[in-house]
Amino acid sequence: QVQLVESGGGLVQAGESLRLSCAVSGSIFSINDMGWYRQAPGKQRELVAVITSGGSTNYADSVKGRFTISRDNAKNTVYLRMNRLKPEDTAVYYCHAGVVTIATRTFMTRWGQGTQVTVSS
Questions:
Q1: pLDDT tens-digit profile of 96-114?
Q2: How far apart are CA 17 and CA 66, in angstroms?
């Protein structure tokens, strides 16, 4: 079984920074893309940033230049560094990973439980 466990959310003031972490555990053969999504109250879940196994990245326009996604393949962990946070960044942030397990050698997607980020003005 594969689990994604997020950490690092919290309450900050506008302009401050946070770093989210997401560790993937279980019987993993390989991890493909890893990413962060967010969902604000009353809104649909949206992509924030994604990083491929080779390190290529893509960001939502709203976070370009402020957020940085990275990964440590040795630790099966993805990070999201969020700088110059704005009140509109307030949301539950979810980690996402495309995983191939040792047992089945089939591709599956998995989500973390979410971590709350609240930015006060």
A1: 999 999 988 999 999 999 9
A2: 9
